Amino acid sequence: MSTNDIKSDDNGYKATQANLDKLSKALDDKGVELEVLLRRMKANAKKAEDTAQAIEAADLDPRFVELTFAVSTALGGAAVHIQRLAEDAVEGAAHSRVVQNSHATLYGQLDEIRSGRREKTPKAGFFTE
Exposed, middle or buried by CB within 10 Å (0-12, 13-18, 19+), for 22? Predict the structure, then answer.
């Protein structure tokens, strides 16, 4: 997502608000997708572990038991990282909403004033020396 995704007639405030909203929603969506992936990975890790135990009980070559347990362990380890990523996505969405609210608090009224004028407003920094 680039800052050019949303254009609002040279209104940076509205574009920023829209981009922050879009970011929050995208992170929420990814968080849900990662939760689904996490459940599937945990289920597959359990299936691999059960399969390894079944192979061991059937007295097959120990090499296959070891490899199947290794798959289970790898899936379990990946699931831990997916869980952290899902938590980060949820946290990122919450932070982007805080930023959006702070931005609205700081600049919302200014945007109302600027949007209500017919005259052009000076560029930022015009009055500073």
Answer: middle
Look at residue 10 in the predicted model and tell me its pLDDT: 54
Q: What is the mean pLDDT of the segment spanning 18-46?
A: 97
For the chain, how long is the longest CA-to-CA vector? 85
Sign of torsion over alpha carbons 53, 55, 59, 64: negative
Q: Please report which helix (H) or strand (E) contains residue 26, including its range.
A: helix 12-57
- Residues 79 and 38: beta-carbon distance below 8 Å: yes
Cβ–Cβ under 8 Å, residues 6 and 22: yes
Instruction: Give the separation between CA 86 and CA 63, rounded to whole angstroms.
Output: 34
SS3 state of residue 122: coil
3-state secondary structure 35-104: HHHHHHHHHHHHHHHHHHHHHHHCCCCHHHHHHHHHHHHHHHHHHHHHHHHHHHHHHHHHHHHHHHHHHH
The predicted pLDDT at position 1 comes to 46
